[in-house]
Predict the 3D structure of the following.
Amino acid sequence: MSVYQSKSGTWFYRFKVKGKSYHKSIPLATCKREAEIAETRIKSDLFQGKFDLIESVGEYPFNSLVKEFEKYGEANRKGWNKADKYEVEHLKNFFLNKKLNEITPFFIEKYRINRKAQGRKPATINRDITILSRMFAMAINEGLINENPCSAKKVKPLKVDNQIERYLTVTEERELFRHLEDYLKPIITILLHTGMRKGECLKLKWQDSVDLKKRMFTLYETKNGKIRKIPMSDTVYNSLKEHSKDGEYVFTNPMTGEPYNDIKRAFTRACNDAGIEKLRIHDLRHTAATRMVSAGIDLVVVASILGHSDIRITASRYAHPLPENKIKAIQSLDNFVSQSGLRIAQ
């Protein structure tokens, strides 16, 4: 028998008749025996000429693949979140009722044009195509299709403007803290002194995530699904030592008893009051990374703290000199000559 169960728990049949491959899910099967019985009936129908009941390789519905992909993501990826679902929803709506073999590089390009018309940035569109590519990789593993139409050779990623991210200066930081509401101060302190993402910080739990004795954070709900440990600086430790420990979460909203869902509005208000322009909460992560790199910390260490799976991501975003360090570098040329005791004729 040629039946098998996918990682999501769904049973499939897969076989060939006269050189043609047939592959489809058996959604009602709950065990191998039921799947084998269903396969036998399907083969019988096939030999009787009822070919309309069978789907060959590539004819699997995209909507069905989306369901399998979502099941797998929710069950196996800790990093599976609302953003993933949001992007998957866009893909599902655009390729509605398409079969896998109908989603060609040409139609993928039409999808990208459509997303551009909606005002989406190249990085966002590239993320969409990466998710689509993962879906097709799953489909190939399951024998649903033979080729991935999203491969780099067929669909080249859009160019992304890698401009230097905004970071907070020391002067701005001092002014910002003067205008922050009290409940925000320890949150912003942690973001600036650890490089955590906002969501990672807001989901910190006293029992699981914070060890004041060892001065260590342990992050379980991360973007890439990998557990990450981050040491506490003295500033962070002192901030948390004085913080209220009532409740499961470190930062509990007293109105709901749950962790704060979003702090964007209060943060933006503080920035406006402080006269700080074009600063996002995520820029605090950029600030932490830029400061570490500027201090000479090895990029491998910085990547580990930030949770980057590839050091090239860290290097491309943060391995750039601060303006003040450029000035110091140029000034060092003057100092080198003067300290040598030599006079250079001008």
Notes: The chain has a mean pLDDT of 83.
